[in-house]
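Hi support team,

I submitted a single chain yesterday and got back a structure, but I'm not sure I'm reading the C-alpha cell output correctly. Could someone confirm the output below corresponds to the sequence I sent? I've pasted both exactly as they appear in my results page.

Thanks,
R.
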Amino acid sequence: MQPAAMAIPKSDESWEKGKYGPIWPKTPANYGFTIIARVKPGRADAIRGYGAKLAKALESDPSLLAPLKLHYLRWVLFDDDTRFMYQGIFDTDFDKYTEDAVALFKKAGVDTVFENLEDFPEDWKTNPDAFVRFVRAHQCPSFLEYGEYPYVSTDEIKKALELKSAFSRMLEQMQ
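Hi R., thanks for writing in. Yes, this is the structure output for that exact sequence:
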C-alpha cells in the first residue's frame, strides 16, 4: 500500500448530486468535512464543556459514535473563541454522515455542539434537512487530501488490528 494524495477540483455542475447537493469525491483520506461557524456570544465554555461531556460518554461507551464510521474528529475554537471549527473524516458520504449524526443524537437523547453556533436551526431534531443545510452552508471544502493508508475504512483498520492482536497472542503462546 502506497500513500496517496488527491487534488480536489472546485465543485461544479458536473459533480454527482446527492439529496442535499453535490457529493464530494472519496479521497485517499475517505470522506470528510470542515465546518466553520460563528459561536453564539458567551457560548465558548459550553462548547468546551460539551467536548468534555462527549469524551466522558465515550469512556462509558466506546462504540457511541461507531454508526458514524469516523476516523477522527477535531474541534477548534479560534479568533478569541468567536469561531468554531468541526473537522471530521469518515467512511460515508457527506449526506449520509449528517443524517446518521441526527439519528444518533436523537436516539441517544443528546444535543449537538452545533446548538452553540449562530444560525443553527432550533428544530434540527425534527428537521434533519435544516441540520444538513446548516452543515453544507458552513462547509469549507478542502482542495487537497492525503492518506498514509489510502481509501481504508474504519472497519478494515479495526479488523487488521484485531488480526495483529490475535497473531501476537498466538506467537506468545508458542514461546
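A quick pointer for reading it: The chain has four helices and five strands. Let us know if anything else looks off.

Best,
Support desk
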